[in-house]
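User: I'll paste a sequence; please echo it back and then give the predicted structure.

Assistant: Echoing your sequence first, then the prediction.
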Amino acid sequence: MRAKASLFVLLYCISSAVAAEVSISQLYKSYEKSGRSSDQMPEYNKKIAISGVVLKQTENFSGDVIISVGAPDSTVELARAIFGKDTPAEEIDKLTGGVAFKASCTVAFVMNSKYLSLQDCALNNRGK
């Protein structure tokens, strides 16, 4: 009996740690629903799996690659994703305009911005 209870707790913890994948459009709707304040989102400060399309790629002053993310059917920027240093440069280089991708990112703080801020992103298997 004790082994079953322990197994149940372990499975529950594992399933809680793995978030279901959400599209960038769904995540942005959550941001809007939360009054355009990411700290009011249920996803805030949590690692979530997202899917989206690359609009463009830039760098910040620290040399981090920033990916502008949109939905497949739009050119509107919904998020900016910063990938962790452990993401291979050759994988980042493949993220050019129009490429669909999947990644796990942490929703960072942003308020009244036109786009969400995603940090510590890591590529999952690439999209279409």
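The chain has one domain: 21-123. The CA atoms of residues 44 and 115 lie 14 Å apart.
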